[in-house]
Amino acid sequence: MFSFWGQKQAFALEGQDAGANSFDTLAPIFPLTAKSRDSFAALMDYVPSVDPDAAYFRSRVPRAARIPAFAPTQAHPKLSSLPQVATLTGCYRTLGEHADDHYKRSRYGAPPQGGVYVSRMIGYHDIVVSWSGPGMIPNAALIDAAHRNGALCLGTIFQPDKRIFDSSAVPAKQVAAKFVELALYFGFDGYFMNFELGTPEGHAQILDLLAMMREEAHRQGKSDFYIQFYDGSADMDQLMPIETPGTPYVPAASFADSTMLDQGWSGYSMTHGCCSGRPTDAASVYAYCRKNGLDPYRSAYFGYQLYPGPGYLGLSAPSVIHPNDSATAYGSLQVYSFEDGLHTMQLALDKGKGDAAPALSREEEFYALERRFFSGQSQNPALDNAPNAEQAHIYAEVAGRTRRYTDYSPTEDHPTDQVKLPITYGVANFTVEHSVIGAFPFLTHFNLGAGDAFFVDGAKQGDRPWFNLGIQDLLPTWQWWLEPMQGSLDRSAAKYAPLRVEYDRALAFDGGASLHISGSLRARDGVSLRLYKTKLPVQNAGDLSLHLVWQGLAETKEYLLAGLIFEDAPDQAEWVRFTQTDAILHEQLDHGWTRSRMTLAPYRGRTLAALLIGFHHEKPAHADTPVDVHIGEIYAGLPLKGETHSAPSSFTVEAHAAGAAQGTMQVRLRWQMRDEDAYYDLYAMNATSNARTWLGRVTADCYYVESVQAEQGSAIAFELVATSRENPLLRSLPARTTVQAA
Predict the structure, then answer these.
(1) Which of 57, 116, 123, 374 has its CA 20 to 30 A from that of 480?
(2) How far apart are CA 729 and CA 565, in angstroms?
(3) Torsion angle, CA of 332/337/340/342, rounded to 10 degrees?
(4) What pLDDT digit, counting tens, does each position of 456-474 carry?
(5) Distance (Å, rounded) from C-alpha 381 to C-alpha 371?
(6) DSSP letter string over 180-237?
(7) Claim: this prediction has a pTM higher than 0.85
(8) CB contact at 8 A, 561 and 575
(9) Torsion sign across C-alpha atoms 507, 513, 514, 518
(10) Looking at residue 28, what DSSP letter applies?
């Protein structure tokens, strides 16, 4: 079911018996990570198309188009849509006390005790840089998730060997072509070039290499090939020097598309001289870009190194973008190693609790910290999240250098360690939210890309923990924008959370989680939860519908509403009560779920700008009403009308061998990937009961099953089911293949 990467000892081809008493792993090895005496030679010799493992790490998800910004439905309508957000991040950082980089080279797998970090905030990013773990080729799951959310995903070339750029071994153009070959094959968008401590000559050669890479990518038809440059400085004339005008493939006459300024630009050097960039006034960066014909928001990304103090964003980002209104905006933001910063903060918080019983599990606490970092300290992106008097005083002390911070130590107690620098503003207070929901159909199951089990149509079909960021659904745009249903939200409030909103991994309709809203609804209370930013033009409305699949308490229908906001009236939500039998139809499904469907016919000719759900009593209640509802699916589009989707083709066993545990097998499966398929689900069939066990979901043409039960001498049957891209409610008939257990 999951993968452990390591050196293969043998490769058992179909038809061969690997032997019942030995274990030779068939796990694919991540590209360019095998031990080599000369990594440069290995790079130049590597040809992914002939590597039998390469296909297992290839992203096939195209980058989705984002819808335009629409200020009236933004969490902060006065924020400019021009500044962007980039990140340097790693896939699958372990959440236990000690980091285990082993999982960062896994596309999917079974998590260790304590779990792995699977980001729930990919949608905020314009650029996602694969920073740690696999090397210059990003984890395919990270590429999948970035592209599904409309973001670029870049590999990292870190402190390159001089032979890469000085033409001493092979011409630099040949190296540039190799980098382009890797990006085109594995499906990512370009590179983050990290070149520090080089000579002036080397610096110039690196810039030339960047130009060669882009020229080669354009020659091969990739017009959106992207390069970001970083050299440890904060000097724009060094980071984004102007090339001779007239180069056909270089917009704004620069070598790179953008740069990240070293965090030293802010003057907040934190500890031990960790910043090499000199302090730089943000306005001067803006002026440099304007003077030289560069777009400051697409060229200059101000760096924020967040380990070990994520509060650094709230301290310094206001000098780049004025929070909540963009009254000043000099460039874009780039955060790096924020998962390490959040993890360090969690360790410090755990240390401070002593023997007190935790209110949340470590995993829940980590994701609450993630929401605070992205949505602000209130965990509501629509609130201002401004520092209170005490927090503002701490910020002033740090800015005035009367308070110094030291590195966090798990063994020593530093009263001024950086994790105590408060998180105040979140990313949402500086940049607008993004969405790719611009056409019907739209479907989400709130699948996080991780779970403790796997559900299909409400039935549990896999009972082992798993992770795969690459199959994460489009998660809610705002986490969590709660506001009163009537009246306006007090954006200056410290908190507005009349109900608890969370993802529940114990219950799902499809995938590994559902959206869970719970708490108590007071008499005459009305609460709105904004979920998705959209731009859905309602045409042919006689067939279009919106449905929610949910389950809850018996009285749920009495207070649950579906909410729609349209572009022609963005200040007014139109609510449909679940008790309105003339407007909404309810269908009882298996396993306690209900599908509630409403037609979009009354809204013909209008454009849907946001999807909401609400909670409100139709009649005044005499006492508080308990709320406990799970949303397992939201769909907007055409209903199924007897369509069929053909089974996948060429489904075969590529290789098999005995598994690590007695009575198990490992298998490599292949099939032909089709444009009409969104993704594939794999199942093992019980020979006796014919019951299905879910093995994995992937957007690819191959899958490695690390362990499946195998009765000696019996045949193991596998099924492959495709889901339609055109109508994601439609699944194919299964394709089948078998393998004889050793």
Answers:
(1) 116
(2) 24
(3) 0
(4) 999 999 999 999 999 999 9
(5) 9
(6) HHHHHHHT--EEEEE--S--HHHHHHHHHHHHHHHHHHHHTT-TT-EEEEE-S---HH
(7) yes
(8) yes
(9) positive
(10) P
